[in-house]
Amino acid sequence: MLDQFNIAINGAAGRMGQRLIVLSHEDPELNLVAAIDAPGSPSIGKDVGQIAGIGDIGVVVTSALPDRVDVVIDFSTPDGAIAISQVCAERRIPLVEATTGLTESQRESVIATSQETALVIAPSMSLAVNLAMKLVAEAGRALKNLPGGVDVEIIERHHRFKEDAPSGTALKFGEVVAQEMGQTDHVHGREGRSGQRPQSEIGYHALRTGDNVGEHQIVFGMMGETLEVYVRGHTRDSYAYGALTAAKFVCKQPAGLYSMQDVLNL
Ligand SMILES: NC(=O)C1=CN([C@@H]2O[C@H](COP(=O)(O)OP(=O)(O)OC[C@H]3O[C@@H](n4cnc5c(N)ncnc54)[C@H](O)[C@@H]3O)[C@@H](O)[C@H]2O)C=CC1
Ligand SMILES: O=C(O)C1=N[C@H](C(=O)O)C[C@H](O)C1
């Protein structure tokens, strides 16, 4: 007999939310009990299976978290993340937080949830992206004292509907590189007579085109050669499967802060 967890999705009617509805509904270890979306959203009151394209599944979209929820996954907006994290903290419900674009103070507020319950927070739930973070850290370590210098630039590509830039994942890649190599200046695009490039910079470039589900390219440019770590999502299921793995992990943990490196044992 499998352990079954009662799962709730916040941001259920969104692009990610819909994939999570489909995949959690198919998963024998998960019992989808709640689909939450913004108060006033046109999806409220509709069966979430209809919204996700799989027909009625008997779970209606609401704006409040019901009782008997073991774990929540949030892919919504910064305001949605703050609201659901407060509910999870009050009710001590483990939370997987995937929303990006939070300000520093919003991020601190969400992280405070981990004092009351288990929290996984990550800008990307993808296995490939989280593995690429390890590779990038290793590259940074190996290249940091190169006599000719190394220029690190991060290029990310996403769909035209994305509201934050650069992506949370690109910022995290930059943080990982800076931890290893010590760059202090984070520069977003270049224009005009920007001058010669100092080694203290990491440059970020955000492309927004069509329906791209997410690509990240971390460029280590040296004198004579270039190393690139490139990770490309094909479908949103790469993030959705990671989030479901994180949900199964987090609901077995004591209160505290966990990363996808913990979830994936990387
Ligand atoms: N960590 C990761 O692996 C990934 C993170 N994301 C992030 O997840 C977030 C959502 O992405 P998408 O699904 O593409 O966006 P979306 O715009 O398609 O969906 C967001 C959903 O949240 C709902 N929402 C808005 N305010 C809310 C509130 N206060 N409470 C509950 N629901 C609310 C919206 O009505 C909408 O249905 C973004 O921040 C995105 O960057 C996206 C993909 C992967
Ligand atoms: O909005 C998206 O789509 C994505 N957002 C995340 C981010 O900002 O890093 C993760 C993924 O790249 C898709």
3D structure, described in words:
- The chain has 266 residues and is α/β, with parallel strands linked by helices.
- The protein folds into 2 domains: 5-125 and 236-264, NAD(P)-binding Rossmann-like Domain (Rossmann fold, 3-Layer(aba) Sandwich); 127-232, Dihydrodipicolinate Reductase, domain 2 (2-Layer Sandwich), CATH 3.30.360.
- It contains 8 helices and 12 strands.
- The chain has helices at 15-26, 48-52, 78-91, 104-111, 127-143, 168-181, 237-250, 260-264, and strands at 5-10, 30-36, 61-62, 71-74, 95-97, 118-121, 151-158, 185-188, 201-208, 215-221, 226-232, 256-258.
- The strands form 2 sheets. It has a 7-stranded parallel sheet with strand order 3-2-1-4-5-6-12, sandwiched between helices.
- A hairpin with a 4-residue loop joins strand 10 (215-221) and strand 11 (226-232).
- The mean pLDDT is 97.
- Ligand LZUJQKHR binds at residues 100, 123-124, 158, 162, 167-169, 214.
- Ligand LZUJQKHR binds next to helix 6.
Topology readout:
Blueprint: E1 5-10, H1 15-26, E2 30-36, H2 48-52, E3 61-62, E4 71-74, H3 78-91, E5 95-97, H4 104-111, E6 118-121, H5 127-143, E7 151-158, H6 168-181, E8 185-188, E9 201-208, E10 215-221, E11 226-232, H7 237-250, E12 256-258, H8 260-264
Helix pairs in contact: 1-7, 3-4, 5-6
The chain binds 1,4-dihydronicotinamide adenine dinucleotide and ligand LZUJQKHR.
